[in-house]
């Protein structure tokens, strides 16, 4: 509905693949925005790495406390706690981006008042969500790689390089699964404003019962049962099998096949919930409320 | 164009903000940059273009908001209370920017509670009260609805003592209306309420004939305000 578009100075979106492509072309703008915003808080660049080092030191000392025989073996090999927990740190970092960061970004946009401005542009809500975490999706793999190098060089953590590709494959289905949960959380942020708290409790519960920081065997029996359906637990176990035991695809595939339908359902529910939440708030004219 | 000014990324520059929103509107980056500069020039923010928006004054942020609204050279522009929190000069500046856009062919829908800005600015008015349309038409048609009966007058008398001025004026008015001190001060300003069918000129002539000079006379509230109150059923008259 603009005269420049009528003059074909800019392309008019239509309900087609071209419209999707045009929307995806907007993603770099989000990256640039977030880079500039983050760079304006220069300290946060460094505080992230300081936090990482503190986290590594914490687990290093825990590593000295926890005897390896309290942990499961991988490929018949007894792994140290720091090896075991490093894989969890990698997987949960991706989870934090797709889930935690999506929610916090949305909430921040809501509080700053920019959410309404974003939503009045001819940009799909999905593109806005994807754009909001693009910076992190690009930054986190770089950060994770450096983290793994530091862990290998400084702490002698022994990872199977051949396990990297299977781990990436697991993450490729795990991330959409978490994304779906993130969208459900985002829907609650849009409708009840402080919904991120509810989502946070759910994620904390899932993480607690995932075997991220201690083996599942120490959980009550009923929680161990539930862990079989916990996507975080499945992804963690698959990634550990890949990176610590060098397990072949025959071991990894079942994990991927279990996570894939979860990802489909989670994404479908998340997108539907988010769309409904937006429609509801638009109808009420309360998108700008926070 | 949203009413609040909390709609920009305060840590990045006005230019970067406009380029970002331009990209979301479908421009490629070179187009977005070019268009952002054009719009910044239109709202006289070229010099502040590279400063973080957080350092902009309230009026500057509002002008940036206008610039963003003009990015796509829209066919229809919804403006939500753009001037409600601006000083008169800032409000006038925003009005002029939007007027210029309207002159270029944009249909502007201007939502406001500042009724005084409507005359001379809006071409037609729709009056909403609790979600219901109470009036739709031209500004003169809206003002014609009002029947102003209350006037603020400034009086002085060389003959009557100041404490007798009010009673002298009331006697002069007789049944044409009532007069009472205004703004809590009996010094010079009075509120004249005319009875139905009484012409203002006749009432003022009677007061003048009693030896009281009328230094100034104006409607207590604007015609448009009176019309609004009448249409919404809140007219105290």
Walk me through this protein's architecture:
The complex is a heterodimer of chains A (290) and B (237). Chain A has one domain. In chain A, α5 runs parallel beside α8 (164-192). In chain A, strands 1-2 form a two-stranded antiparallel sheet. In chain A, β1 and β2 (77-78) form a beta hairpin. Chain A is mainly alpha-helical and 290 residues long. Chain A is built from 12 helices and 2 strands; from the N terminus they run ααααββαααααααα. Residues 5-13 of chain A have low confidence and may be disordered. With 237 residues, chain B is α+β, with helices and mostly antiparallel strands. Chain B has 2 domains: 14-113, P-loop containing nucleotide triphosphate hydrolases (Rossmann fold, 3-Layer(aba) Sandwich); 150-220, Alpha-Beta Plaits (2-Layer Sandwich), CATH 3.30.70. In chain B, 39% of the residues lie in helices and 23% in strands. Chain B has helices at 14-24, 29-42, 58-70, 88-103, 139-145, 162-173, 200-209, 223-231, and strands at residues 76-80, 107-111, 124-129, 132-138, 150-157, 177-182, 185-194, 212-219. Chain B has a 4-stranded antiparallel β-sheet. Chain B is elongated and about 75 Å long. The A-B interface holds A 1-6, 9-13, 22, 25-26, 28-30, 32-33, 36-37, 40-41, 112-114, 116-118, 120-123, 288 and B 2, 4, 6-12, 16, 19-21, 23-29, 31, 52, 68, 72-76, 105.
């Amino acid at each position: 509905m603009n005269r420049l578009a009528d003059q074909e100075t800019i392309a008019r979106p239509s309900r087609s693949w071209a419209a999707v492509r045009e929307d995806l072309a907007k993603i770099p703008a989000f990256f640039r925005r977030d880079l500039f915003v983050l760079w304006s808080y220069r300290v946060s660049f460094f505080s992230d790495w300081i936090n990482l080092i503190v986290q590594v030191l914490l687990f290093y000392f825990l590593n000295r406390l926890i005897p390896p025989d309290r942990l499961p073996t991988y490929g018949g090999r007894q792994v140290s706690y720091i090896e075991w927990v490093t894989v969890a740190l990698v997987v949960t970092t991706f989870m934090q981006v797709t889930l935690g960061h999506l929610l916090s970004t949305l909430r921040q946009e809501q509080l700053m008042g920019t959410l309404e401005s974003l939503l009045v542009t001819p940009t799909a809500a999905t593109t806005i969500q994807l754009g909001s975490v693009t910076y992190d999706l690009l930054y986190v793999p770089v950060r994770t790689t450096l983290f793994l190098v530091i862990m290998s060089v400084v702490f002698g953590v022994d990872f199977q390089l051949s396990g990297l590709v299977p781990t990436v494959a697991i993450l490729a289905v795990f991330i959409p699964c978490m994304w779906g949960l993130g969208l459900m959380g985002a829907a609650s942020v849009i409708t009840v404003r402080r919904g991120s708290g509810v989502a946070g409790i759910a994620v904390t519960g899932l993480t607690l019962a995932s075997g991220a920081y201690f083996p599942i065997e120490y959980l009550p029996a009923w929680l161990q049962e539930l862990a079989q359906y916990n996507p975080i637990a499945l992804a963690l176990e698959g990634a550990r099998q890949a990176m610590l035991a060098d397990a072949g695809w025959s071991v990894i595939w079942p994990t991927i096949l279990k996570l894939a339908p979860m990802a489909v359902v989670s994404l479908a529910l998340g997108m539907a919930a988010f769309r409904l939440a937006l429609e509801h708030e638009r109808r009420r004219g309360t998108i700008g409320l926070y | 164009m949203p009413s609040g000014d909390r709609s920009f990324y305060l840590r990045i520059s006005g230019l970067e903000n406009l380029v970002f929103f331009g990209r979301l509107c479908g421009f490629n980056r070179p187009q977005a940059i070019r268009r952002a500069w054009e719009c910044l020039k239109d709202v006289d923010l070229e010099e502040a273009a590279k400063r973080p928006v957080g350092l902009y004054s309230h009026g500057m942020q509002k002008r940036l908001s206008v610039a963003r609204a003009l990015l796509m050279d829209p066919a229809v522009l919804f403006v939500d209370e753009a001037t409600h929190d601006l000083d008169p000069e800032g409000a006038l500046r925003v009005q002029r920017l939007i007027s210029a856009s309207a002159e270029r062919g944009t249909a502007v829908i201007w939502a406001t509670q500042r009724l005084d800005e409507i005359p001379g600015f809006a071409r037609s008015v729709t009056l909403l009260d609790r979600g219901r349309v109470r009036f739709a038409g031209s500004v003169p048609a809206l003002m014609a609805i009002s029947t102003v009966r209350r006037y603020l007058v400034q009086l002085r008398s060389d003959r009557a003592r100041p404490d007798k001025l009010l009673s002298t004026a009331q006697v002069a008015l007789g049944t044409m209306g009532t007069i009472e001190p205004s703004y809590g001060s009996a010094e010079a300003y009075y509120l004249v309420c005319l009875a139905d069918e009484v012409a203002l000129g006749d009432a003022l002539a009677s007061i003048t004939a009693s030896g009281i000079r009328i230094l100034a006379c104006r409607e207590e509230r604007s015609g448009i305000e009176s019309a609004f109150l009448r249409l919404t059923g809140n007219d105290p008259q």
